[in-house]
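> example.struct
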């Protein structure tokens, strides 16, 4: 009888199969170390399919609200990592100016080497501002970025992303909601605090990494109207991967 392989060894074999077969979209896969840095696992299947399914989930949400990606002229993936979602917009390269930025220079460098045939990339600092003009993008999206920011970083970054969004344009963010909190084993007392305060953060001293984890309520997100954002649609557990993060689509109100 064959000895059962440990998970790390099975993962190596699965990944080898993916690397031999090549990606669905034709772009190369990042090194396992970079994949793990971004999504907390080295599994290429999760990197590839999660990115594809979330791009489709974003597209569905946007189209349902009259914002088809194929009609956009400018787009920013804030916190692009190693291009897990951004790589699925390659078909828009002739009609849309696509940007990705991240505070991790190594991830940005990988994107510049392998995805620059359809997108441009910048390194941003861990705190605002980012180097783009006011109202430059018709769409800004941030997948699992607010989920890893300290409490004091939350609103400054939301204000900055609003600034670079065109008036009438859209900002799409994903958050850990109550469902994620329950799945992650957040205590009843902390759940009560989440409902009371609208946002709670664990591991704030490790902000920017997967070890810092933030949770948000729908009510907190609706309260961002003071930044000039209208919550167009809130979709609990709307992302299409095992993270089951909530999706919130905002429109920057016209001045």
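> example.seq
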């Amino acid at each position: 009888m064959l000895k059962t392989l440990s998970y790390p060894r099975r993962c190596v074999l699965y990944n080898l199969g993916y690397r031999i077969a090549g990606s669905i979209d034709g772009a190369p896969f990042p090194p396992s170390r970079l994949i793990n840095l971004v999504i907390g696992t080295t599994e290429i299947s999760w990197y590839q399919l999660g990115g594809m399914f979330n791009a489709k989930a974003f597209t569905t949400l946007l189209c349902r609200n009259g914002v088809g990606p194929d009609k956009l002229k400018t787009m920013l993936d804030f916190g692009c990592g190693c291009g897990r979602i951004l790589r699925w917009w390659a078909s828009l390269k002739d009609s849309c100016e696509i940007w990705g930025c991240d505070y991790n220079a190594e991830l940005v460098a990988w994107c510049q080497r392998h995805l620059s045939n359809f997108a441009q990339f910048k390194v941003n600092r861990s705190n605002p501002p980012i180097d783009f003009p006011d109202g430059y993008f018709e769409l800004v999206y941030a997948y699992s970025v607010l989920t890893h920011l300290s409490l004091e970083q939350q609103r400054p970054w939301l204000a900055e992303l609003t600034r670079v969004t065109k008036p009438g344009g859209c900002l799409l963010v994903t958050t850990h909601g109550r469902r994620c909190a329950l799945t992650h084993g957040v205590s009843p007392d902390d759940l009560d605090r989440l409902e009371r305060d609208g946002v709670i953060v664990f591991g704030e001293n490790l902000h920017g990494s997967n070890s810092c984890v933030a949770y948000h309520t729908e009510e907190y997100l609706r309260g961002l109207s003071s930044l000039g954002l209208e919550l167009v649609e809130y979709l609990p557990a709307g992302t299409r991967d095992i993270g089951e993060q909530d999706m919130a689509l905002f429109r920057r109100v016209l001045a």
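> remarks
Strands lie at 74-78, 97-102, 120-123, 137-142, 165-175, 199-202, 213-216, 229-235, 246-252.
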